[in-house]
């Protein structure tokens, strides 16, 4: 359960490597979150307030409304894939950070 | 009563599923010893397994029965549920899953209580968990009632009681491991059913996407109704239908995208895996499975309106039989046997979700309220927490059964679940995010955020057109409270914090929480913790 020796969290949280990890995560997560929320909320706003625009044909009988909704699925898949790929870099940083703490303790 | 039950292929298939899952429950019950294994499946579930289980936990009666009915009757506006239910997983993946896994133990409140004064925070979080779970569960019970009525021709009330009793068996005896396996099997079955149903619909249009979309754009319910273009938005939320419609649509969408990351029964799934990385992998799996499923709702939702005569999907009273469109479609296209399969799948779907919900609600009550609030975090006797959880499962089940019977079978399951999402987004998400990311956040803020979000969402639902005053007397004009109650939840959490004194303990522990949540150092390990 609990670690045998309680780490000194205050000084761990001050480690430069930890701040680099946080900054790296922030660089991806903040813009990605802003992007997907805006892209997603654009759908109900456009549908709700500009229905005539969204009823215009896009490809054949498929209108702008369905096409934009479908693009949300693709957006989700692509963004999730990017996240998974980027997160591997954080894993490496995290690994190095934890290893350096481990070696200092022993 | 019992003599009225006819033995149909559907019933046989359903019983086969029940038998199979009971066997699993029996074996996992023998393996489950101690709290970590009962509540968190020993943290030994693999990434892809948990991904399927998340999908199984998530794709409920609302997704399969509710969305298909909503799209078949209201066209495009119902498809918003499909989009929102999926995009919501980006919120889970980017913001919540990994820190939660690293910082928590059994419940959502573990994260919230980490650096706060635990008793008030756990008490509120437990209340909010119970509330969300019960609303969510009512939707499942309502869907189940419809299905079992069709399946074995019994009345709504005994049908609901039967489902309730069955799901309690899984939870009470099997715990999280049995629930996980029930969900995995169900996810596989549901995907199979969704593909088969979509393929049959597409076959009606010569397997041509062009012909399919042309038919949807001229949907006439097999010639029984004037043509309408179901791809056009606005049949439910359009300005012409209801002047508040567009805002209600935005409100619905907001609740959906932020709700999933506050659903207690989804969040606890991330405790069943060994570490944060596996939690991440399981979200990716879930996104893949769930995304494909919701794309398929195009076929069995819109498609239903191209092949089914309108009278086949209305109740004898002429009301929209909104939760039964998918099974009726299966009967029309694939005959009795396929109907049997789809019904069994729908039933399995409901059972699995209800099991997951009961599990998370009872875990929260036992772990958060009983152990930590009443007994100050100590178990008096080993195993007591599990006994309380089992007892809670009975109570929660009974309450939702009673409310579901009271509401009756005509409420749309997707709509009801949408409300649960709005409550989760308003009450839970603000405090989860502030706990992880905001150093200044304190106990007063957490309690006031939970209370404001939960209270405002529930009150607005009660005052809405579906509430106690009906459509004409409604005080709040929107069916979906999210656009008001979600900002209020954030505001409550923020104001509660800045209006009260700095909490040095909470701020000091933020370093610990932050480091642990972001790196996994000191997090609960697989197979540990009794």
List the helices and strands and how they pair.
The complex is a heterodimer of chains A (106) and B (530).
Chain A lengths: L8 H4 L3 H34 L1 H5 L1 E3 L2 E2 H42 L1
Antiparallel strand pairs in A: 1-2
Chain B lengths: L8 H23 L3 H6 L6 H12 L2 H14 L1 H28 L4 H6 L4 H35 L3 H48 L5 H9 L27 H15 L4 H4 L8 H27 L1 H4 L17 H50 L9 H24 L5 H25 L5 H21 L6 H4 L8 H17 L5 H16 L11
Helix pairs in contact in B: 1-8, 1-14, 3-8, 3-12, 4-5, 4-7, 4-12, 4-14, 4-16, 5-10, 5-12, 5-16, 5-20, 7-8, 7-14, 7-15, 7-16, 7-17, 8-12, 8-14, 8-15, 10-16, 10-19, 14-15, 16-17, 16-19, 17-19
Keywords:
heterodimer, A: 106 residues, mainly alpha, two-stranded antiparallel sheet, 80% helix, 5% strand, B: 530 residues, 20 helices, 73% helix, 0% strand, globular
Give a verbal description of the structure.
The complex is a heterodimer of chains A (106) and B (530). Chain A is mainly α. Helix content of chain A is 80%, strand content 5%. Chain A has helices at residues 9-12, 16-49, 51-55, 64-105; strands at residues 57-59, 62-63. In chain A, strands 1-2 form a two-stranded antiparallel ribbon. In chain A, helix 2 (16-49) packs antiparallel against helix 4. The longest helix of chain A is centred in the C-terminal third of the chain and has 42 residues, at 64-105. The radius of gyration of chain A is 22 Å and the shape is elongated. The mean pLDDT of chain A is 89. Chain B has 530 residues and is an all-alpha fold. Chain B is globular, with a radius of gyration of 22 Å. The mean pLDDT of chain B is 84.
Describe, in short, the structure shown.
The complex is a heterodimer of chains A (106) and B (530). Chain A is mainly α.
């Amino acid at each position: 359960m609990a670690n045998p020796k309680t780490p000194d969290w205050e000084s761990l949280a001050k480690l430069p490597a930890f701040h680099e990890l946080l900054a790296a995560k922030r660089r991806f997560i903040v813009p990605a979150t802003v992007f997907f929320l805006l892209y997603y909320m654009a759908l109900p706003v456009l549908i709700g307030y500009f229905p005539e625009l969204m009823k215009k044909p896009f490809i054949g009988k498929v209108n702008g409304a369905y096409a934009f909704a479908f693009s949300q699925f693709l957006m989700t898949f692509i963004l999730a894939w990017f996240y998974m790929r980027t997160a591997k870099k954080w894993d490496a940083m995290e690994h190095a950070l934890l290893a350096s703490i481990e070696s200092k303790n022993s | 009563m019992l003599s009225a039950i006819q033995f149909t292929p559907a019933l046989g298939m359903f019983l086969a599923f029940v038998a199979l899952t009971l066997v699993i429950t029996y074996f996992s019950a023998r393996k489950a010893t101690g709290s970590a294994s009962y509540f968190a499946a020993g943290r030994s579930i693999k990434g892809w397994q948990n991904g399927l289980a998340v999908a199984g936990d998530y794709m409920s009666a609302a997704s399969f029965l509710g969305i298909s009915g909503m799209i078949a009757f209201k066209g495009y506006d119902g498809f918003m549920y499909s989009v929102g239910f999926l995009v919501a997983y980006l919120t889970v993946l980017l913001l919540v899953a990994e820190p939660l896994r690293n910082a928590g133990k059994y419940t959502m409140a573990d994260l919230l209580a980490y650096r706060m004064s635990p008793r008030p925070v756990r008490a509120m979080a437990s209340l909010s968990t119970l509330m969300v779970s019960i609303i969510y569960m009512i939707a499942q019970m309502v869907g189940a009632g419809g299905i079992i009525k069709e399946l074995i021709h019994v009345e709504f009330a005994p049908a609901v009681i039967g489902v309730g009793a069955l799901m309690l068996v899984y939870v009470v005896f099997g715990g999280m491991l049995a629930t996980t396996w029930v969900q995995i099997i169900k996810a596989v079955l549901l995907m199979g059913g969704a593909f088969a149903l979509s393929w049959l619909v597409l076959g009606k249009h010569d397997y041509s996407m062009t012909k399919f979309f042309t038919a949807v754009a001229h949907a006439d319910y097999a010639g029984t109704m004037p043509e309408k273009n179901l791809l056009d938005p606005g049949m439910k939320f359009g300005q012409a239908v209801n002047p508040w419609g567009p805002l209600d649509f935005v409100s619905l969408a907001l609740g959906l995208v932020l709700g999933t990351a506050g659903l207690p029964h989804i969040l606890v799934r991330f405790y069943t895996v060994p570490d944060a990385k596996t939690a991440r992998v399981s979200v990716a799996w879930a996104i893949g499975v769930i995304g494909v499923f919701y794309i398929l709702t195009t076929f069995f939702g819109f498609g239903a309106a191209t092949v089914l005569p309108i009278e086949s999907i209305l109740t004898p009273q002429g009301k929209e039989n909104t939760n039964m469109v998918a099974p009726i479609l299966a009967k029309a296209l694939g005959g009795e046997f396929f109907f049997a399969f789809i019904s069994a799948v729908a039933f399995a779907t409901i059972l699995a979700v209800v099991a997951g919900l009961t599990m998370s609600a009872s875990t929260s009550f036992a772990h958060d309220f009983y152990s930590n609030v009443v007994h100050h975090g100590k178990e008096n006797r080993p195993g007591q927490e599990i006994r309380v959880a089992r007892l809670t499962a009975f109570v929660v089940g009974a309450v939702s059964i009673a409310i579901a019977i009271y509401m009756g079978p005509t409420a749309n399951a997707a709509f009801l679940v949408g409300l649960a999402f709005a409550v989760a987004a308003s009450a839970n998400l603000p405090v989860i995010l502030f706990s992880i990311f905001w150093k200044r956040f304190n106990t007063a803020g957490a309690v006031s955020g939970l209370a404001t979000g939960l209270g405002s969402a529930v009150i607005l639902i009660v005052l809405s057109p579906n509430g106690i005053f009906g459509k004409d007397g409604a005080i709040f004009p929107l069916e979906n409270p999210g656009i008001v109650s979600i900002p209020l939840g954030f505001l409550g959490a923020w104001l509660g914090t800045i209006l009260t004194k700095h909490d040095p303990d909470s701020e000091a522990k933020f370093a610990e929480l932050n480091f642990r949540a972001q790196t996994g150092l000191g997090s609960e390990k697989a197979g540990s913790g009794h």
